Amino acid sequence: MEIIKDYTMIFTSASLFTSMYHYLCARFCGYILESEKQKTQCFIYAITNTIAYFLVFFLELSHYWYYFIGGTLYISQLKLMGASFRIALGIASHFIFNLATVFIAYIGIFSYSYNVSPQFAFYDPNMRLDIIFFTYFTLLLIEMSTYKKIGLANIKTILNQGKYTNLLPILAIILTLPMGFDEYIVIIDASYNSQVYILCISSFLNIVLYYTVLHHTVDSTNIASYRAQNDITKIYYDNLKTRSQAIMTKANQDELTLLYNKTYIMNYTSDAIIEVAKLDKTHGVIFVDINGLKFVNDTYGHEAGDRLIKRVSNAINKSIRDRSDDRAGRIGGDELLLVISNITSDKLHSVAERIKHSISVENDMESMFHVSASMGTLHITPDIAQHGLDYVLQQVDINMRLDKEQFYKEMEIDL
Q1: Can you give the pLDDT at residue 1?
Q2: Which of 77, 84, 157, 217 is deepest in the core (most CB within 10 A)?
């Protein structure tokens, strides 16, 4: 009872800091496990751990009971809170490692400060109560600093990944074993100076090694998390890009023919003309006017007329699809405009002939009406480009009308 009378203040403080430390640890466990009854459980665990530790102290049991009871209580409370054994062992080993390391460090510090042997500091009840007070006060500061610096979210990430959770208890056990060896040295009574230096150096190295590895583990998990997030972001970006392209395509596309619409093809033609004027390139345009669309609409209905437009458009797509810079668009009911990039005058006429042939082939699949179209071509030179878009469209329209007249003359001859 003398101990309590002489050290009432220290005992009260030690109890307070011990309870605070265990409460902090329990709250940490509750956060990691997302326990619904966190606050109540944390309070109960804190009181239970504190009572158990001071029973060991007053019963003057071996100090190894501290580690055994501490580990057992932590693992038990974590299991009751719903943790797997792997996570429970990972968290418990972290707390026991810190407890063993700081406890041994203070034995060395008190031995040096009071100029007593480590054995005296280790076994004397009064001094050991002081050591318990400072041990738990330091543990409280270490854990608060750890949670703030590393972050509870990062610690949670470590514990939720198998390879990192397994690393914590292995690391803690490996680093705690030297502490047990140091305690054994104290028990067999080596020289005073050697004991003090060994205890302090071992404790310091343990803390440095453990928290260095812990920080690198956080970095590793953050890199893994970043990579996972980056992959998710990439998938999201690809989906967004695909959807954006689909929207842009729909906005620029003629619904019936799936060629480009009037706005797009006019802008593209204008850009092509500017290229010819400024960059000394040569492009070509082909103006296509579908023959007999009004007759088909009036005779067979608009569904047949739409089919005629689609057949001509399909033939055009087949003829220019290998030229990636070529564009074809619908600018009116029966009018189509093509831009053929980087082409000579002779080759432009060859493309037009190929399109005509492709259109004529469509008749093999159509029995209701005749599929044909009149075309005008214009090779855009720098001189022509200087006059602008309207002039180019006017000239190619004139050429198309000449072809249309030839078509009607041939029709009259056939009749």
Answers
A1: 36
A2: 77
Q: Which CATH architecture has domain 262-414?
A: 2-Layer Sandwich (3.30)
DSSP state of 362: G
Helices (H) and strands (E) in the chain, counts: 16, 4
pTM beyond 0.90, yes or no: no
Q: Answer yes or no: are the C-beta atoms of 296 and 369 closer than 8 Å.
A: yes
Dist CA 122 CA 162 (whole Å): 38
- DSSP per-residue string spanning 36-93: TTHHHHHHHHHHHHHHHHHHHHHTT--THHHHHHHHHHHHHHHHHTT--HHHHHHHHH
Quote the CA–CA distance of 12 and 136 in Å, as a whole number.
Answer: 12
Q: 308-325 pLDDT, tens per residue?
A: 999 999 999 888 855 678
- CB 274 within 8 Å of CB 384: no
| Residues near 229 by beta carbon (within 8 Å), at least 6 away in sequence | none
Q: Beta strand pairing status for 373-380 and 283-290? A: antiparallel
Q: Which of 354, 286, 275, 353 is nearest to 322 (CA)?
A: 354
